[in-house]
Design brief:
Length: about 60
């Protein structure tokens, strides 16, 4: 913890403030994980369905 002076007040002094900060951090973390998961699923679907929708994406002479 920080040293308290007349000019400095620790914002996490109260347990409720600490709990609120933890809760907000966890919400941000969960949202980031969900966004990455959805992006991975959408990327997978785009790659897998590209053959059916757009035809061949490789040049004709490629191995």
């Amino acid at each position: 913890m920080a040293v308290k002076t007349e000019r400095f007040v620790d914002p996490f002094d109260a347990p409720r403030n600490r709990s609120d900060a933890w809760r907000m951090g966890m919400r941000v973390f969960v949202v980031v994980v969900v966004v990455l998961f959805v992006a991975a699923i959408l990327g997978y679907l785009v790659v897998r369905l590209a053959d059916r929708v757009g035809g061949e994406w490789r040049p004709a002479n490629s191995p």
